[in-house]
Design a protein that fits this description.
The structure is a single chain. With 110 residues, the protein is mainly alpha-helical. It has one domain. The chain contains four helices and two strands; from the N terminus they run ααββαα. It has a two-stranded antiparallel sheet. Helix 1 packs across helix 2 and helix 3 packs antiparallel against helix 4. It is globular, with a radius of gyration of 13 Å.
Amino acid sequence: MALREQLIAYAMKYQGEYGKIQKAIEREERWEKCEVDCDVITILDDAYPRQLHRLTDPPFVLFYIGEQRLLKERSAAIVEGLRLWREMYGNDRFRIKGALCDRIRDGDGN
């Protein structure tokens, strides 16, 4: 549970930037638990979509609103969810959503 909370804290701090999060993990950087106003799935969770593991640098954390079961149906469900997040909270809330949309659109990791 602590590693999951740690990933969420780093994702918030580094706005989802894979390399920065990876370095923070390697350095065992100090972190504090973050409160988020949405649902969260980390790369450690069973619910993490299998298709995202194929990406070169899969997101450590997915922030979402909606039905988790849709993540297993199609990648498009993830993109739509991220677009909704962007519309609801603005472009600068979490950069992870835009980066993930771009990587799925461009076929990174396929």
